[in-house]
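Below is how a single chain appears once it has passed through the pipeline. First comes the sequence as given, then the structure the pipeline wrote out for it. We keep one example in the README because the format questions we get most often are answered faster by looking than by reading.
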Amino acid sequence: LDGSNKTYIVALIDALTEAERPVEGVEPLKEFFAANPSEDIQKLLIHTYTEAGMYDEATAEIQNILRKTPESVEAYRLLSRNYFAKGEYDMSLLCAEKANEFAKGDASISNNMGVTYLVMKEEAAAIAEFQSALEKDPGHIQANLNMGWLALDSGNYGLARQSFEKILEAHPDSFNAQL
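Resulting structure:
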């Protein structure tokens, strides 16, 4: 097997992550990135660091991106995910807010912030973020799904139905929405 082949290294990282052994992919990926620097491999390295629980290494790599491109939405998204995985939810939200400054119309950022607020047990803030996501993109599948489950859980069956119907319009085979 050729460790210098991009297809091979990506497949290796995918397999190790799927097998819940991402730490074993870090060294081969670092070596590949050093020999073949590219944005997509750098993002894969950051993701692998995060999956392996190597949060400081992920943060350092993201900081390298921000030094070159201080307004990188993707870098702030990655940093937010890294802090979320680390359990530092306030920092995750700060990074997501920064990403949102540069990508105002991105419903996914608002949806992710809503999920973070849910984990923090701040339901009102979560609802506000899901609503913000749906204002930006009324058909956003994940925001509709999150809003639907939250509405269902709180007994707001009308809102739950409305959210799930929105998903079914775009994805009639959605198992979660059909429930």
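DSSP finds eleven helices and no strands in the chain.

See the next section for the split statistics.
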